[in-house]
Amino acid sequence: MPQENTSELDRARLLIRDVPDYPSPGVLFRDLTPMIADGPALRAVVDALGALSPDATHFAGLEARGFIFASAIAARLGRGCILLRKPKKLPREKFSVSYALEYGTDAIEIHKDALSEADRVLIVDDVLATGGTLCAAIELLAMTKATCLGSAVVAEIAVLEGRKKVLSKFPNHELKTLFLL
Asked: Alpha-carbon distance 130 to 136, whole Å?
């Protein structure tokens, strides 16, 4: 990675804001929007994420903020972007995986024809927290028969142990993080 890109990455990390008690008391929200709003910081993050998987044919973004990074990486590298959506957002035949939330369940979906056996995909998201969504995404990509190269997240909240959950369920999954929070 070029030296100037590394200093921009350092600066990008400093732009992530902590917002206490959002969305509820006791939660410390990590706000990446100031980093996204800063052109050089965003470019440094996109370049660093793209460099993590140079053989990817596609970047799969998790709804919603993962879309920002996956689409930017794909556009910068001239590759495809696949959207892993919440239920009732995709119009054609789809695969779906449900996962547990703190209170209830959710799901993510992908069109059945979005990927082929020849495709090599990197899952991209903004923040790894508890790992539930990422585990569902890994399961979802397995249904497509494409090769999952791993996952890349901008930031990981280590205290929530999402990495531990993902790797206990998928021990061979390559999980890469730019910033530990």
From this structure: 12
